[in-house]
Design a protein that fits this description.
Znf_HIT; zinc-finger; 52% helix; 382 residues; 3-stranded antiparallel β-sheet; 2% strand; ZNHIT2; single chain; 14 helices
Length: 382
């Protein structure tokens, strides 16, 4: 509002009083706040108040230089406070060195069920590992280095070269490290030394069941296959944990999927594990690496579990060793196994999509997740 320099100009809104002010937007002369807010001047007055509110919001949201300096000092202080601590083990000492504000923020996250936002998402190694046949990612060693070919490590792809379709593009690059394929260890014995006749066609479905259980467990435990995770892996694969024999890959995966959902696993996680099993079966190197990782977990669990569970781990380890020998001899069968697992994944995904669509239609018709209560008694006496 600007004072009006014309002393005798009447108010252009009420036409009855001398105008004391001039609108800076439209130069309309007015006498009071009431006239400024009048319907005839509404466009200018609302624009003025809107601009004032936006300016206040900008002042509130944009920290000034002093606030930025204080924030940087606080972050530097936090880094200094945590210096020399093992953040994975010295949990009590880490908590003691947090400020009261930091403790309140953490407690608030816990109370809202949002603490998982602090944990970087875990990405399986088979989703970040380069295809074995991709050229240009393996460097030839200097012959004078003396390293045998067996010492060559699998090539890994840099984070920035990941295909966005892999579902990883939305993750912060700083949180993703190039994955290394698990070490396979000693080569398995030839299959001819284990069998005197051709292997049964049920070995392939058993392998698919084991890889499904491995992928499901790895995702559930963020790759940390401790003794609890190992027992969960045995329970997730009837072929591995109980010696169940399946006549087809579809039956093996359907049974594993059913058991996982009965134990409370989400449908989405189970579908991911199905897709993982198809991906692991697509490469003999990846199948063997997954089995080797599972074998290491079984060996470690044997040393800490009770005798009955330790024996189950021992027998499962023997089955995995046999599967590794089978892959070495029958690697040509993996392509068909991978295709069958991929087909099972696609069919299960389609069925899930149809179920979700049916559920959504019913909820829209019901006006909620449950059908409306019927009026009156459901049973009447005649």
């Amino acid at each position: 509002m600007e004072p009006n320099t014309g002393a005798d100009d009447p108010c252009q809104l009420c036409h009855g009083v001398r105008a004391a002010y001039t609108c800076p937007r439209c130069n309309t002369r007015y006498c009071s706040v009431g006239c400024y807010r009048a319907e005839a001047h509404r466009a200018c007055s609302e624009a003025f108040y809107r601009d004032c509110c936006l300016e206040r919001l900008r002042d509130h949201r944009t920290p000034g230089p002093q606030h930025k300096v204080l924030r940087e000092q606080e972050e530097q202080t936090l880094e200094q406070r945590m210096e020399g601590l093992d953040l994975d083990r010295d949990l009590d000492r880490v908590w003691e060195r947090l400020s009261e504000r930091e403790k309140r923020e953490f407690d608030a996250l816990l109370s809202r069920g949002e603490a998982h936002r602090l944990i970087p998402p875990w990405v399986p190694w088979w989703e970040r590992t380069v295809e074995p046949h991709r050229p240009g990612l393996v460097e030839e060693l200097d012959p004078s280095s003396g390293l045998p070919p067996a010492r060559l490590k699998p090539a890994v792809v840099p984070v920035e070269e990941l295909n966005p379709s892999s579902g990883l593009s939305g993750l912060p690059p700083a949180r993703l490290k190039p994955a290394v394929v698990p070490v396979e260890g000693d080569p398995p014995p030839p299959l001819s030394e284990l069998l005197s006749k051709p292997p049964s066609p049920t070995v392939g479905p058993a392998l698919a069941s084991v890889l499904f259980a491995y992928a499901l467990t790895a995702r559930n435990y963020a790759g940390n296959l401790d003794s609890d995770a190992t027992l969960a892996m045995l329970a997730a694969s009837p072929a591995l944990g109980r010696g169940v024999v399946y006549q087809s890959t579809a039956l093996a995966l359907q049974d594993a999927l059913r058991l996982a959902q009965e134990r409370g696993e989400s449908r989405g996680l189970c579908l991911l594990a199905l897709h993982d099993s198809a991906r692991l079966l697509d490469r003999a190197q990846w199948s063997c690496a997954a089995l080797a990782d599972a074998a290491l977990a079984l060996n470690a669990a044997r040393r800490v579990l009770l005798r009955s569970s330790a024996r189950s781990c021992f027998l499962a380890k023997k089955k995995i060793d046999f599967l590794r020998s089978w892959i070495a001899a029958e690697s040509g069968s993996l392509a068909s196994l991978s295709a069958e697992a991929q087909l099972e994944y696609e069919e299960s995904s389609t069925a899930t999509k149809h179920l979700d669509e049916d559920r959504k239609r019913l909820e829209e018709a019901w006006g909620g997740p449950r059908p409306p209560r019927q009026p009156g008694p459901l049973i009447q006496e005649l």
